[in-house]
Amino acid sequence: MKFPIALAAVLAAAFLVVACGDDSSSEPPPATEVPAAAREVGEDDHTDEDDHADDDHMVASGEAGRILVTDADSPYVSIIDLSSGLVIQGAFEVAAPGARVYSALDGRYAFVLARGPDDADDRIHVFDGGIYSVPHDDHEDLVTGPLTRLLDVVDELPIHYTSVNGWVAVFADSNGHVVLFEEEGLAAERNGYEPRILEAGPQHGSAVALAGDRFIVSTKNPDDADDPLPVGVEVRDLNDNVIYDDSNRSCPGLHGEGHSAPGVLFGCIGGVLLFQQDGDTLSHVFLQNPEEMQENARIGTVYGHGEADTFFATASYRTEQGWGQDGLWLINPESGAFTRVMDESSTAAFGPEGEHFYVFTDDGVLHVFEADTGELVTKAALLGPGAERGPAMTFIGEDLVITDPANGLIKRVSLDTFSTVAQWEVGGTPASVAFVGIGGSGH
C-alpha cells in the first residue's frame, strides 16, 4: 500500500515543516510553513535580559507532542498531532517498509531505522519533534514548532539502537560502524550535524553510551571472521581509543542489551554480562544462567529502565524448526538471581517510571508485572487473538499507546482502567510507534 503523498503534503501544512538531508533516497512531500498560531514560544523569543510577565510566555507543563508511526508494508511514516487530533498519513517517506521508530534524547527527537531493499539503500532518519522545553529563570518555557526532518544518514544494516547519557548510538552491522548522535550537537547544528563514528569491525554488534563520553562497544570474534556475533565488549572514548578491554572476550554470542540503574546488561551464551561504571572506575561481572533454563538456551533480548533496579530478558533456543522460547526472566543483578516470569511473550517494555513491566502475549492480552519482584499485578485483553503481527507500544504520561496492525489503528489506553481513551486511524499495517514531545516516558 502507498499513501497519497500529495494529500499528505496538503494536510502537513497544518503543523509540519519537512526538511530533508542530502542523503535521502526518496523525495518527501514539499516543505510547508507552519502557521504562526501553532508556534507558542520560540527559541529566540526572549533574551537573558527579558523579564517578561507571566502572560508573555507558555510555561511547560502537562502534555504536548506527536506520535510517529511506521508501516510494515509501505515506506512511510504517519504523524498524529495530539493537540489537534490531526492524522497525517504518509507524511514522510523513508528508505524501506517495516522501519523502526524510536523516541530519543528526552523525547525531543525521533530516529527511524530503515533497511532495504538493498544494503546501500539503508538509512538512519533523524527527526526533530518540534516540541520541547527550555529552562528560563524559575520555570521551563514550552517551545512548539514544526516537526522537522533533520538528517538522512547512509550506513548499511543499522540495527541495534540505544539512547542514554545524552547520546544515541546506532550499530551498523555491515561496516561495523558505531554511529553516534549527541543531543547538544543536534540542537545546535540541526541538519548540518555530522555524527561521530567509531570503528568496531563488521559484526551484529551493539553500543551503549556511558557517562563522561565513554562508550561500551561490542568486540568482534577474533578467532572466526565469519562469526556475526560478538564475543565481548570494550570501552572507547570519542577518539576511538580503547580505554578498557578486560571484558573483550567475556560474552560469547553476545546479543541484546539493556540499561537500568545498576548498569548495562548484555545477553550471552551461558549467561549475561553486567557492565558497571562508578565514576572513572569500570568493571564487569558474568552471571550464569540458572539451572532451570535449558542447557542450549541463551538470553537474546534484554529490557532495562534507568530508574529500575532489575532487568527483564527473554531466553531462546534453537530447534530443527527454528528458534523456540525458553521464557521471560526477571534478572536481579544485586543477587544474581534469575526468576522465570512467564513461558512465552511477544511485545514487552518497562512502564514510564520503571515500576512495572508490560508484556503482550500472542493472544492480545497485556500482562502487568511488578518490576522489582516479577509478580503479576493484572492482565487485560486489549487486542483480539490470532493477529498475524503483534502490537508495538510506547507510553504517554500514564497511558499506553499501542498499534493495532490488523485494523490500521493506533490506540491510547489508560493504565488505570485499561479502557481506550483515544483512537486514530492511520491505515495500512502499523509496525512501530514512538512519541515525541513533553509528557512521554522518556526511556
Q: What would you say this structure looks like, in words?
A:
This protein has about 450 residues and is mostly beta strands. The protein has a domain at about 1-155 and about 435-443. Helix content is about 5%, strand content about 45%. The chain has helices spanning about 5-10, 185-190; strands at about 65-70, 75-80, 85-95, 100-105, 110-115, 125-130, 130-135, 140-145, 150-155, 160-165, 165-170, 175-180, 195-200, 205-210, 215-220, 230-235, 240-245, 255-260, 265-270, 270-280, 280-290, 300-305, 310-320, 320-330, 335-340, 350, 355-360, 365-370, 375-380, 395, 400-405, 410-415, 420-425, 430-440. Strand 18 (about 255-260) and strand 19 (about 265-270) form a beta hairpin. It is globular. Residues about 1-55 have low confidence and may be disordered.
Distance between the termini: 32 Å
Spans where pLDDT lies below 50 across 5 or more residues: 1-57
Report the strand count. 34
Give the helix/strand class: mainly beta
Shape type: globular
Question: Could you tell me the radius of gyration in angstroms?
Answer: 22 Å
Beta-strand level of the residues, as a percent range?
over 45%
What spatial order of strands do you see in the largest sheet? 3-2-1-34
Number of helices: 2
Mind summarizing the main beta sheet? Answer: 4 strands, antiparallel
Mean pLDDT: 86
- The level of helicity is under 10%
Give descriptors for this structure:
single chain; 443 residues; mainly beta; 4-stranded antiparallel sheet; 2 helices; 3% helix; 47% strand; disordered N terminus
Short description:
The protein has 443 residues and is mainly β. The chain is built from two helices and 34 strands.
